[in-house]
Here is the input.
Amino acid sequence: MKKWLIALCFFASCALSSEAYFRSQAAKSIKEIAAILSRVETHEELQAAVPRLKKKFNKLASLLIEIRAFRERKPNVHFSGEPLEGSEILFAELARLYEIPGCREIVEQAQVEAVYKLTR
Here is the structure.
């Protein structure tokens, strides 16, 4: 009986903190992507980072799919519209890399699989 009560309390706390959980996981993914991009200075370095970027973009897409499913199961739960921690840094890193000829296409190539997952 005690184990069931502990399990029930755990699942109740998870449900209550779902937004916090999802936000923290998304912020973590965003920071990881920004960290990879911050170490890139050339077209060649970005090309070498593509496998890691693909993995991180796919992880973020999976999380977004999980959030979408959660929101469908619990339509009364509302998420705040505040920007995620690290999103400004990611935006700045992408803007910096997009100034390098050919880098925009490489980033978009790294995102293709993740975008496909989100749109199917």
Observations:
- Residues 3 and 23 are 29 Å apart (CA to CA).
- The chain has a mean pLDDT of 85.
- Helices lie at 2-16, 18-38, 43-73, 87-98, 103-119.
